[in-house]
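Posting this for the archive.
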Amino acid sequence: SSNDNTSIGRLNNTNAPSSHYTYPTMASTIAKLFNPAFYTQTAGYVVQRAHNYYHPLMRQNKATPLFHAMVGISAIMYTATYYARVYPDQQKLRAIKKQALEEYYEKHGGGDHH
């Protein structure tokens, strides 16, 4: 019926008020990414938000800022250690396995040819 109140009926409702939000175009998004002012503005926004969140917590001697700092430092250290020590070893092992598979396929036929 025309007064269908299911989710599909609501989605197809042509009498619904139009949204005033305008979606950015791909060209404007790409232009924004190449504009240094975008990054300066974003960094300023992040710093302001962090200050507004953490400053009252610091004044109240809460443990939350310490905990967040510890988690952030741990994530950075884990990532740096992985890329400095583990990743090169993994790449060497992958190269050895790839060479062994190529030799096997050359000798026995078959392989990944797609």
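DSSP finds four helices and no strands in the chain. Residues 55 and 65 are 9 Å apart (CA to CA).
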